[in-house]
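User: Run a structure prediction on this.
Assistant: Running it now.
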Amino acid sequence: MRIAIASDHAAVDLKAQLREYLIGLGHQVADLGPDTADRVDYPDYGYKLAAVVADGTAERGVALCGSGIGISIAVNRNPALRCALVSEPLSTALAREHNDANAIAMGARLIGEDMAKACLDAFLNTDFGGGRHGPRVDKLSNPAFEGATA
């Protein structure tokens, strides 16, 4: 799978660990930066990640910052992205199964390497359930969509 990964300065170490983990699993990984722990603005990297997932260059995205909150907000500014802030495998799997999440965000100051890897495994190994969730997911990118029921 083609996966893009990006972070801010607070998560550059976790990003490197997860990049190597993904490569070890056989995935193609585009590291969108940053390369150092010098201060950067998380929206810049969230927007980069969203752009490459939206245009199909990457099939999935992994966004990291100190809390995961700011970068997830930045990623979700792109209407083609459904980025879920996750901290454990169950919510990660549900984000894929019910919401067809094409990106996840995690907080490097809040999650350890092993838990982050477990979240990645759930993200990459869970399929979208479709069915009743399909029209709801369609509404996420198009609020005027009439296909879903309350």
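The chain is about 45% helix and 15% strand.
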